[in-house]
Design goal:
This protein has helices spanning 20-26, 51-64, 82-101, 118-138, 156-164, 180-183, 187-194, 211-214, 241-250, 272-287, and strands spanning 3-6, 31-34, 67-71, 106-110, 142-146, 171-176, 198-203, 260-263. It is an alpha/beta fold and 288 residues long. Helix 3 links the parallel strand 3 (67-71) and strand 4.
Length: 288
């Protein structure tokens, strides 16, 4: 059975960390992916959870009947400057400990390097993996990585080459639908290439920023390095959802016991309940 998980980011301002499992259950979700939160794993900083908070979170999830199959920390593990990279590795080691304590088998993350220093960032990524991958493998965890827009690698195929270079079955790919057009708009060819190393799929829509010969979005001054994408409800953008799910079905992802699909719409917090419920129903329809 495909697991459909809620990304609780739209609820961060109105609910506390320990309320997220109940929010997910109220909306009909059986699964929750933890994302960066000030009380647990803040962006780029050391995790803030102690044993007491971990125990409370486990109890909250159990009481709500909601499982936590994955956690998403974001740390500068590919940062080209060494102080930031060393801090990110330290932070990530603690994140691994928390995943083990919470019995969460999957860590999804991003490269978090810099596109203007891509060669240095790639080298930094491999240095970090030399330190972190043995720990991840020894703990029996799965690490999946998304090449996020404005990272040292954005193209999906090139990112897969970087991950493949680690030569570890413990490392996989996060396919984020709202990053489709930064990946190169190649789901039908990229996903079969990744195969069983596809670790998670995030589902939100986005507009194709490459249309109109690159003039769909105009950002001044001309030639600046800004990246644009959205996290819209399914159907509100340009992602070809039929192609995506047909491809997922063709490669057998939807038949896998560990298949994880995350709803992560961030554009409509003012009606988060309505959108989250819609996403769950639409994903069930797409999965069939």
């Amino acid at each position: 059975m495909v697991r459909i998980a809620l990304d609780p980011t739209p609820y961060h301002h109105d609910f506390g960390l320990l309320e997220f499992p109940e929010v997910a259950a109220r909306l009909g979700y059986e699964f929750l992916q933890l994302t960066p939160h000030v009380d647990f794993t803040p962006f780029f900083r050391y995790p803030k959870a102690d044993d007491a908070l971990v125990a409370k979170l486990k109890k909250a999830a159990s009481d709500a009947g909601v499982a936590i199959p994955a956690i998403l920390p974001v740390q500068r593990i590919s940062w080209p400057d060494e102080p930031q990279r060393e801090a990110a590795v330290r932070n990530f080691r603690r994140m691994i400990q928390l995943a083990v304590e919470l019995e969460i088998p999957v860590i999804n993350t991003e490269f978090s390097g810099r596109p203007e220093r891509s060669e240095e960032s790639e080298a930094a990524f491999y240095r970090s993996m030399e330190e972190l991958l043995p720990v991840i493998e020894s703990e029996g965890l799965r690490l999946n990585i998304d090449p996020h827009p404005d990272d040292f690698v954005e193209d999906g195929l090139e990112a897969w080459r970087v991950l493949r270079g680690l030569n570890s079955s413990a490392v996989g790919f996060v396919y984020v639908a709202s990053h489709t057009f930064h990946y190169g708009d190649r789901a039908a060819t990229l996903l079969p290439e990744i195969g069983d190393r596809l670790g998670a799929v995030y589902t939100a829509d986005t507009f194709d920023h490459t249309r109109s010969h690159g003039l769909r979005y105009i950002s001044n001054p001309p030639g600046n390095a800004a990246r644009v994408h959205q996290h819209l409800a399914i159907g509100d953008g340009d992602v070809d959802w039929t192609e995506l799910f047909d491809t997922l079905r063709a490669i057998g992802y939807l038949d896998r016991e560990d298949a994880l699909i995350v709803s992560n719409v961030f554009a409509e917090d003012e009606r988060a309940d309505e959108v989250s419920a819609f996403q769950l129903a639409k994903l069930r329809e797409l999965i069939g």
